[in-house]
Structure formats: structure tokens, C-alpha cells
Amino acid sequence: MSTPRDGAGDDEAALLAARSVSAQCQCTEALEKLETFLDSEMGELDADRLRTHLEACEPCLEAADLEQRLRNLVRRACHEQAPDGLRARVRTQLTVMSTRVVISRPD
Ligand SMILES: [Zn+2]
User: 30 C-alpha to center of ligand 1: Å?
Assistant: First the structure.
């Protein structure tokens, strides 16, 4: 009796692992580039890659959406470009919020 080759399962697991690692890398990269993207200072090629990632990745899309909304809010409040101090404060707040989401656990 011949048995089917048994390597396929392992290959699949390795592929899945590699895929999830690269997905994480893409998220890190996407979030790092978010500001450049929203500032419209990004090259078309990078912008396209980021857009593609945002379409496929809900957490990053939400982060982008939140950042965009904060920017609109700041812009509307100031009627012009936000002062550096305010921008820094908003950015810190954003970082604190996302850090809390990652590390928060019930006591
Ligand atoms: Zn992502």
C-alpha cells in the first residue's frame, strides 16, 4: 500500500507561519508610514502598497481612520496647520491609546 507523502502538512504550517510573520511586518511598516501617507508626502508606489494593505487589514484601516479623523479635528479647530505642540500631544495620546489596547489586561 502506498501512503501519500507526509510533508505537505509541515510545508503548510511553515507557509502559514511565514505568512503571519510577514503580515505583522506589513502592519508595523504600514503604521510607521501612516503619517507620511496622510501628509501626502509618500511616493505613489509606497502609497499604493499601503492602500492595498489597509484594504486587507482592518486594524490598520481603523488606525488610519482614527489618525485621519484626529487630523481633521485638529485642522478644523485651528483653521490652519496645527501647532507642533498640539500635534505632538495628539500623537502621544494616540500612542498611549494603542499601547493600552495591546498591553491592557484585567487585574
Ligand atoms: Zn495591518
Answer: 6
